[in-house]
Write a structure and sequence with these properties.
Length: about 270
């Protein structure tokens, strides 16, 4: 049997509104096209993404504004993530693929497998929170990395990164953050709750050497193909797609009503 061919959108840096619009656009475009997608990206300027149903009052928006930190809202759930010195990935599995027939827990486990294997390839020993005996956090901390769910990834007992999902008409989007470094003092400027850095870590704090963005992106792409059993074609965002992405930015991600309340143009 020939392996499935996935689309690979290579690493690029965009603003927060565009990044969230691209992920949604790829979900809607490829959700019924039978083509999985892997996209790798970064953020400029730095941004905080809020979970789909999260209250914005957890943030000090004046501090964010003063430091040029954009606040955006995702269509996926979970807590807020600060996006700066990190690599972010998104994966789209089209409707009808085995991953989309799994429960939420099952699909997290399947898709996170390539993240786990990437960490192993760097000499680390990742485990799921549930396998480390870590109980899910009561409630949901406002800062994503402060809490634990069953399929969060831990290294040396501390959470690394975060992952969130959304299903639309049978198709599945999962995107997540892999922090290269973490600055707790800076994080605390933007969050009203006290942030305890004992629960989370970053790649270069845990790895025995410094890992750069280019190396990490290459490993993620290679491991994704091997662990998911797919080939890939490189396909940048083209001009026609840019039109659709701009439309999503204008109709959702640039609107204060969406950022504050998440109530514009439901998907």
């Amino acid at each position: 049997m020939q392996p499935l061919t996935a689309r690979f959108v290579p690493y690029g840096i965009r603003g927060g509104q565009e990044n969230m619009a691209i992920d949604e656009y790829l979900l809607l475009r490829h959700g019924h096209a039978g083509v999985p997608v892997l996209r790798l990206y970064g953020w400029k300027p730095p941004a905080i993404s809020l979970g789909r149903y999260q209250g914005i009052e957890c943030l000090d928006r004046d501090a964010c504004l003063g430091d040029g930190v954009t606040v955006v809202r995702r269509i996926t759930g979970g807590g807020a993530i600060f996006h700066d010195h990190e690599l972010t990935y998104s994966v789209v599995w089209p409707a009808g693929s085995p991953e989309t027939h799994e429960s939420n827990a099952g699909s997290f486990m399947k898709i996170n497998a390539f993240i786990m294997e990437t960490y192993r390839s760097l000499g680390m020993n990742p485990v799921y929170a549930k396998d480390a005996g870590r109980e899910s956090s009561p409630g949901r901390p406002n800062f994503c990395f402060s809490g634990n769910e069953d399929y969060d990834i831990l290294i040396e007992g501390r959470k690394i990164g975060g992952n969130a999902q959304r299903r639309v008409r049978g198709a599945l989007l999962q995107h997540g953050s892999i922090p290269l470094t973490a600055d707790t003092d800076r994080l605390q400027r933007y969050f009203r709750d006290q942030i305890d850095n004992r629960n989370f870590t970053s790649l270069n704090e845990t790895c025995s050497r410094e890992v750069g963005l280019e190396e990490l992106a290459g490993r993620l792409m290679e491991v994704f193909c091997d662990s998911m059993g797919v080939d890939f074609t490189v396909q940048e965002i083209d001009d026609s797609e840019e039109d659709g992405i701009r439309s999503l930015v204008q109709s959702r991600y640039s609107l204060e009503q969406w950022t504050v309340n998440g109530t514009v143009n439901e998907v």
